[in-house]
Write a sequence for this structure.
């Protein structure tokens, strides 16, 4: 395979992976403000870490939901079971929960 073909192949793979990956939202100050109504000690760092953990831990087993696709009440029902299945620590679980509920809180 010549170098031109390798480059084209790599570009196609990259484009495919971007198009097919779930669209997760990077936390914003709007999310932080909304999340502070739920968690007064919330920081943007916590939201970013929650996003990373959600993608890494939850996405390793199944397709990820966009945070706004699920209501906060439904997240509350779903997440405890996922904590056990994904073997999340209490800290990881808390950060993922904060990310998901804060992203959702901006639409309420």
């Amino acid at each position: 395979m010549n170098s031109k073909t390798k480059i084209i192949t790599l570009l196609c793979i990259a484009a495919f992976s971007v198009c097919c990956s779930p669209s997760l939202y990077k936390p914003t100050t709007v999310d932080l403000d909304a999340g502070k109504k739920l968690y007064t000690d919330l920081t943007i760092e916590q939201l970013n870490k929650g996003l990373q953990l959600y993608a890494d831990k939850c996405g390793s087993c199944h397709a990820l939901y966009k945070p706004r696709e699920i209501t906060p009440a439904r997240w509350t029902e779903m997440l405890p079971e996922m904590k056990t299945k994904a073997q999340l620590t209490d800290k990881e679980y808390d950060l993922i929960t904060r990310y998901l509920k804060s992203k959702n809180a901006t639409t309420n």
Summary: The longest helix spans residues 3-20. The CA atoms of residues 50 and 97 lie 7 Å apart.
